[in-house]
């Protein structure tokens, strides 16, 4: 578990709105938050540093664990973990549904406006072959453009084994009738992307499943050097649903300038979640996690920072920098959460 320092600089307005009460009677005094973060490195690690700093401002001791989302849900349902703030919805709906009577989702999502995910190809190839939909890869000649191992099939870079996003991609490949011409490649995502970036830099055709905001789209820039290939119709495996449908308006870089763009799971967001009993007993924790939201630009910057340096020290430094540059916002979140009641 990493150690986190208390942040001591307070905005002037903070003192007038609740600092006195907090200084004498912190809602988390003598209490512990068992905080979980996902086992896949991303901007969520920076976010979590900021959240933990805020919880400590509220007086809580924080114990950090790194676990998969499935493990978190089971542990939170059993009362062995309290909260997490990097639950991907709708991707994790299937895992959440069995425990929703004991675990609450918190707030409306951590990223303002949410994110999107889909199939990304290099713009050069898309323009040359007039690619506007993933189902054009049914054509063996088109699929062969993305063949990286000479087996005649397009190699579609997919998620880690065990990640539900990879199951969605595998399902769609079959559902769209692409199994004869497209093979998904599942492995450690960061390793696969390193190979993808190398091909991209060499000017070779590139095909990858990814999401934004992310460090991937910071390199493979949709609308500039890559485009999103829409799916031909809505399709998701049982237990996963696109609450607002697959059509997403305003997607930058949708092939052929399509708007809305039919994306893999529609829009998504990172959500906070927690054990219901714990949240009922600690309304300040619920209120704080519900208030903390980030613009897509901030999330993308964090992803890029991690791509350059992902050490614990670098992650902590980035979090501290964000707090210092947004001190008033941070302090107001804490102040408002400190007075929360059920």
Would you mind describing this structure in some detail?
This protein is an alpha/beta fold. It has 2 domains: 12-106 and 269-338, 3-Layer(aba) Sandwich (D-Maltodextrin-Binding Protein, domain 2); 115-265, Glycine betaine-binding periplasmic protein, domain 2 (D-Maltodextrin-Binding Protein, domain 2). It contains 14 helices and 12 strands. It has helices at residues 12-24, 43-57, 69-78, 93-96, 123-128, 140-144, 164-175, 189-201, 215-219, 276-281, 283-291, 296-308, 312-325, 327-338; strands at 32-37, 61-66, 83-89, 103-106, 115-122, 154-157, 182-185, 207-212, 226-229, 247-248, 261-262, 267-275. The strands form 3 sheets. Strands 1, 2, 3, 4, 5, 8, 9 and 12 form an 8-stranded mixed sheet that branches. The chain has a two-stranded parallel sheet with strand order 6-7. It has a two-stranded antiparallel sheet with strand order 10-11. α1 runs parallel beside α14 and α11 (283-291) runs antiparallel to α14. The longest helix is centred in the first third of the chain and has 15 residues, at 43-57. The two termini are 31 Å apart. The model is unreliable at 1-23 (pLDDT under 50).
Number of helices: 14
Can you identify the CATH superfamily of the largest domain?
Answer: Periplasmic binding protein-like II
Shape: elongated
Number of strands: 12
Q: Based on helices, strands and strand pairing, what is the structural class?
A: alpha/beta
Helicity, as a percent range: 40-55%
Main sheet properties: 8 strands, mixed
Count structural domains.
2
**N→C terminal distance:** 31 Å
> Quick one: CATH class of the largest domain?
Alpha Beta
Instruction: Give the second-level CATH assignment, the architecture of the largest domain.
Output: 3-Layer(aba) Sandwich
Name the beta content range: 15-25%
Oligomer: single chain
Overall average residue pLDDT: 90
Low-confidence stretches: 1-23
| CATH fold call of the largest domain | D-Maltodextrin-Binding Protein, domain 2
């Amino acid at each position: 578990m990493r150690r986190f320092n208390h942040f001591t600089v307070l905005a002037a307005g903070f003192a007038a709105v609740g600092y006195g009460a907090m200084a004498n009677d912190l809602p988390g005094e003598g209490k512990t938050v068992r905080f979980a973060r996902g086992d896949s490195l991303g901007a969520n690690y920076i976010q979590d540093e900021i959240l933990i700093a805020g919880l400590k401002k509220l007086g809580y001791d924080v114990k950090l664990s790194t676990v998969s989302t499935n493990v978190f849900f089971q542990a939170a349902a059993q009362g062995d973990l309290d909260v997490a703030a990097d639950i991907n919805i709708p991707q994790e709906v299937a895992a959440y549904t069995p425990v929703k009577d004991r675990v609450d989702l918190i707030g409306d999502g951590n990223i303002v406006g949410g994110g999107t995910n889909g199939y990304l190809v290099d713009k050069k190839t898309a323009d040359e072959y007039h690619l506007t939909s993933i189902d054009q890869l049914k054509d063996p000649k088109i699929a062969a453009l993305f063949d990286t191992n000479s087996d005649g099939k397009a190699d579609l870079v997919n998620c880690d084994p065990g990640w539900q996003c990879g199951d969605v991609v595998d399902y769609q490949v079959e559902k769209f009738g692409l199994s004869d011409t497209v093979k998904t490649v599942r492995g450690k995502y960061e390793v696969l992307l390193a190979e993808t970036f190398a091909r991209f830099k060499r000017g070779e055709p590139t095909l990858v499943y990814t999401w934004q905001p992310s460090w991937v789209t910071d390199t493979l820039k949709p609308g500039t050097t890559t485009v999103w290939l829409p799916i031909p119709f809505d399709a998701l495996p049982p237990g996963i649903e696109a609450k607002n449908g697959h059509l997403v308006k305003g997607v930058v870089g949708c092939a052929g300038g399509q708007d809305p763009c039919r994306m893999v799971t529609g829009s998504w967001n990172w959500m906070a979640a927690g054990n219901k009993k714990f949240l009922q007993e600690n309304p300040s924790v619920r209120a704080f996690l519900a208030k903390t939201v980030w613009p897509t630009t901030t999330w993308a910057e964090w992803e890029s920072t991690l791509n350059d340096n992902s050490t614990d020290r670098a992650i902590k430094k980035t979090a501290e920098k964000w707090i210092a540059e947004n001190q008033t916002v941070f302090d107001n979140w804490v102040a408002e959460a400190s007075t929360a009641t059920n």
